Amino acid sequence: MTKIGYARVSTNEQNLDLQIDSLTKEGCSKIFREKISSTKKRIEFERCLEYLRPGDTLVVWKLDRLGRTTKKLLDLVDELQVRNVHLQIITLGVDTSTPAGRLFFTVMAGLAEMERELIRERTQAGLQAARARGRKGGRKPVDQDTMNRAFMMYEAKMTVEDIIRTLNISRATFYKYLNLRNQEG
Q: What is the domain extent for residue 172?
């Protein structure tokens, strides 16, 4: 039985050291590392899953390193179980090689999803309260003078990269206003 580790942080600015140290201490012979949001395609995670063999244990530092929804987490555990691969979550003390570990994992996955839903509900309630007081969220719209200058630069054959850098607007904003202009004209 080999322990294979997976460590992930969401952004390049974050550090994997704590997870790597914990996975090493748990005896992982190989550790897959990734700096990417869980909502994106996780190539190293897919490589890790391909690497696992029957009898191996996938070790992660924390539950949320694997996924965001209970369904995805349970699907993953089912897939691992079919392949005779166990799962160990260090911070929870969970090991799915035991019936108690599988039950505990299912309960914790449900609680993690509920926590995310509660956060989302509180955020929505806060936004509604702010709107009721006349405040709007999001970025302020780019003023028309800036966009007129952007279109003049565009028509003068400047690159979009040069335009957005010069005017300090995002690429998405430029194309959004360009599409609106094209629809009107």
A: 144-184
Q: What are phi and psi of 153, to 5 degrees?
A: -65, -40
Determine the Cα–Cα distance for residues 115 and 123; give it in Å rounded to an integer. Answer: 12
Beta strands 30-35 and 57-60 are unpaired
CATH code, domain with 75: 3.40.50.1390
Q: Mind listing the pLDDT tens digit for each residue in 79-102?
A: 888 899 999 999 988 888 888 888
Pairwise CA distance, residues 96 & 86, whole Å? 6
Total residue length of the chain: 185
pTM: 0.59
Spot the catalytic one: 10, 29, 37, 38.
10
The pLDDT tens digits of the residues spanning 124-182 come to 999 899 889 988 877 778 888 999 999 999 999 999 999 999 999 999 999 999 898 88
Whether 10 is a known active-site residue: answer: yes
